[in-house]
Structure formats: C-alpha cells, structure tokens
From TrEMBL:
ImpA N-terminal domain segment(s): 14-112
Keyword Nucleotide-binding: no
Identification of the protein by name: Type VI secretion system protein VasL
Native organism taxonomy: Bacteria, Pseudomonadati, Pseudomonadota, Gammaproteobacteria, Enterobacterales
Keywords: Membrane, Transmembrane, Transmembrane helix
Pfam families attached to this UniProt entry: ImpA_N, VasL
C-alpha cells in the first residue's frame, strides 16, 4: 500500500462479503486447506486486509486473516500485533461486530486457534522474546475475559493459546532469575499497537533469530493504529434517575396545587360560607358532625334570602355590563316574573277567609238560638262545604313546616 500505513486509523465495520478485496483474501486463505498445498501470498493478504479495514472497517473474519498473515510474515511480533487488534475489536465492539451469529463467531475463533497454534508450536523462543510474549498474553487474556461474558453457547478454545504463552514465559524466566534476584517490573504496553518509532524511541530491539521468524521486508513493516468511537457519556444511575424523577414530580404537584387546587379551594370556602352553598356541599358529602350545624344555619336563614340573592345578582350584572343587551333582557325577564308572582298572590289567604266564614256561621247559629229559630240540614252542609273549600285553597306556611 502506498502512503504511510502506520498512520492509518480504522474503525469497526460491517459485512465485507461484497468487497472484491475480501474475495481475493478468502481465495488465498482457502489455499491453506487445499490438498496440493499451493503457496499463499501472505503479503497480499496483509495488504488487502488493510484496504478492507480502511474502506469498510474492522470485522472479526478479516481481522483473523490479517493476524494469520502477520504471523506468517513477522513471526511472534506479527502474531502479537494481530492479537492486540483482535482484542481491541472484540472488547470494544463485540455487540455490533460482524458476523453477528454466535455460532459463526465461535467457528472463526476455533479456526484461528487451530491455525495459529500449529504455527506457534513450531517456533523457538529466546529470552528477548519475553516482551512480545507478555503482550500476547495480555491480549489473549482480554479476549478470553470478553468471550466469557458473551452469549456464546460454546466458548472457543482460545485459552489453549494463553496457556501456551504462559508456559513459554515460565521456561524463559527461570534462567533470568538466577543472576537477577530483583527483576524490574514489566511495563505492559497499551492495547493499541504503535509504530516502532513511536513505541520504542530510545533503542530498537535486536533483530529476532532467523530460525523462527522470517526476515521482514519493507512492505511487511506496516503498522495499524486502531481507533474506535468514543463511548457515549455515562448516563445517570438508577438512584439518580429516581431522585430526579421524584423531584420533578414534586415540582409538578406543587405547581398544580398553586395554580389549580388552591384557587378552587378558596372559591369553595367562599361558597360554603353562604347557607345555600353549605347545604349543597353537605348534600354532596354528608357528615354527621355537621348535620346539626346545617339545620341551625337553615333555621336562621331569612325567607327573603332568595329575593336578596336575586337583587344582588341583578345589581352586579348592571354594574359590569350596563349596556349589554343580554344583561338587560335577562334582568327585564326576572323583574316581570317577580311582578307576576306578586300579582297572583291574594291579599288575604285561605286562612283568613275560613276564619271569617266560621265566624259568620257561628253568629247565625247564636241568632237562631236566641230567636228560637232553626237551620235545615242542607243549609249546614252547604256552609261547611264552602268553609272547607276556602280552607284548602291555601296551605299556611306553618302547616308546611309542621
């Protein structure tokens, strides 16, 4: 690839199946299982994998092919770089990583374990390989931890690679512990692999022994820098969300009480101060404690309460809407109704008429008794009938209240 691949920034991507570069990579990888064992163009696989990363993003299958190519070209160092790339993808983008099928992911990682394991077991490691071994251990440990937290029904045997490197590190550490009783703590590099000039500016490491790592060319020194999208800002915890929701709910309740409930309560208090309003409120919600109080207030109510209330209504309406035709018509109709009721009431009620008729009959009976006169039965029946009719024409208020 042209340019500076060590400065290439890649991202997690989707399916590469429709890319021509991926088709070429897959054809080259299929040669590893061909019976005739044709030669695989590993530099081409590495170069095309970087192209896929740049154009489509990182996926699990292409990252595995890239790791295998790096290992074939650069031995332990290439395998370590590829493992760090896989660790970054699996840890950061497992939920959205392609392919999404759990079984396919398991098969790919099993294939990765078998292919790389057979090559690694043919390598011979020296003491100066410990740094790369530690990095490979770290990357494999991250991959295993994330796989154990996933939804895979069957975990791939990536742990075998971790055990292999742990045993190799123990064998290489024993000869070094004798002359150095107090070894320096191992500085673990970051997960993202940097170029040789960036990662180790003070002194480049000695070249690997030619017996287990092929000689790398200029094209094989490509480095990849992985950059994933930043995680979204952490949201509120459950308790913080609950507290914020409770506070907002309290503010809504207080605002509703001030805007709606309190004015309505004030209006209700004003209405219940009047006898009619208090009676309606008691009928809506009867209480035995206020029953006697309601009766006492009704007993103290003047018969003119309705008249006074109507007069107050008409005066208020005339003050607020003096020129309104609606107000004038309603007031006029009320005055006409009051006048008609007054005119329909007789000057004397039925009780007065009955009293006069009884007095007249009593006077006639006394007069006939003095003159030794008499009354016919028909006359008495007629007089009593007239008195009863007058008496029943108007029921006194006292009788209604009895």
């Amino acid at each position: 690839m042209s340019g500076h691949p060590e400065n290439l920034i890649i991202r997690a991507g989707g399916s590469p199946l429709n890319l021509p570069e991926f088709a070429v990579i897959r054809d080259e990888i299929n040669k590893t299982s061909h019976p005739s064992q044709p030669e695989v163009n590993w530099p081409l696989v590495e170069s095309l994998s970087l192209t896929v990363f740049k154009t489509n993003g990182v996926d699990l299958q292409t990252a595995i092919y890239y790791t295998l190519a790096r290992m074939q070209l650069n031995g332990l160092a290439g395998f370590t770089e590829g493992c760090e790339l896989l660790a970054g993808v699996i840890v950061s983008e497992w939920d959205t990583l392609w392919p999404p099928q759990p079984q396919v992911r398991t098969d790919l990682l099993e294939w990765f374990h078998s292919r790389t394991g057979s090559v690694l077991r043919q390598m011979d490691f020296a003491a100066n390989d410990l740094r790369m071994i530690y990095r490979a251990e770290r990357a494999l440990q991250l991959i295993i931890d994330r796989l154990q937290q996933s939804d895979l029904k069957r975990l791939p045997r990536v742990e075998n690679l971790l055990w292999f490197f742990q045993n190799a590190a123990k064998k290489l550490e024993k000869p070094r512990q004798a002359p150095k009783p107090a070894s320096q703590p191992v500085q673990m590099p970051p997960l993202v692999y940097l170029s040789q000039s960036e990662a180790e500016p003070e002194a480049p490491p000695p070249p690997p022994p030619p017996r287990h790592e092929p000689k790398s060319t200029a094209d094989n020194q490509q480095r990849v820098r992985v950059q994933f999208p930043e995680e979204p800002p952490k949201g509120l915890s459950a308790w913080q969300g609950f507290g914020l929701g409770a506070m907002l709910g309290l503010l809504v309740l207080v605002g509703s009480w001030l805007l709606f409930y309190k004015p309505l309560q004030q209006q209700l208090n004003v209405m219940t101060e009047q006898p009619a309003g208090a009676r309606l409120a008691w009928l809506y919600e009867p209480t035995l404690d206020t029953y006697a109080t309601q009766l006492e207030r009704l007993a103290e109510t003047s018969p003119l309460t309705t008249w006074e209330a109507a007069r107050a209504l008409t005066e208020t309406a005339e003050q607020h809407w003096p020129a309104s035709p609606v107000q004038q018509q309603a007031t006029r109709q009320w005055q006409q109704q009051v006048t008609a009721r007054i005119d329909s009431v007789p000057l004397k009620g039925g009780w007065d008429t009955t009293r006069d008729q009884l007095q007249q009959l009593a006077d006639k009976i006394l007069l006939q008794e003095r003159t030794r006169g008499s009354f016919t039965l028909s006359y008495l029946k007629t007089a009593i009938y007239d008195i009863q009719r007058s008496h029943g024409s108007d029921v006194p208020l006292e009788e209604l209240l009895r």
